[in-house]
Amino acid sequence: MNKENTFFLVIGALILAIGLVVVFLCTSRPKEDFTFLTQCLAEKNVTMYGAAWCSHCQSQKRAFGEVFSFVPYVECPDNPQVCIAAGIKAYPTWVFPDGTRVEGELSPAQLSELSGCPVTETR
Fold first, then answer.
1. Are 91 and 52 in contact (CB under 8 A)?
2. Which residues are within 8 A (CB) of 29 and not within 5 positions of it... i.e. 6 or more apart?
3. What is this structure's pTM?
4. Most CB contacts within 10 A, which of 28, 41, 61, 123?
5. Phi and psi at residue 47, in whole multiples of 5°?
């Protein structure tokens, strides 16, 4: 291999590596801090029912990052009787205190509107 080919190979590898890092940084965590929203959802007992194998549930959790842990969540395969009693037929299903239920992924803005919880703390 001559020097010119080696140079282009190294440059190509660097561009690929930088691209992978950018993709990882852009997709590995939410772009906003949803701590206030998820804590409010918990206070209002807005519950998400889902399953670990459900790609839409995984996507929903990823949208919130680590702070999803505040959201009341029921893993239906581990708690089938709870989910049957709640009438869960699809994953994810969001259940609100007034009995409203929404099947499918919801954006933070949609959850805010449905729950009355602001996305960020307002002072």
1. no
2. 65, 66
3. 0.72
4. 41
5. -115, 140
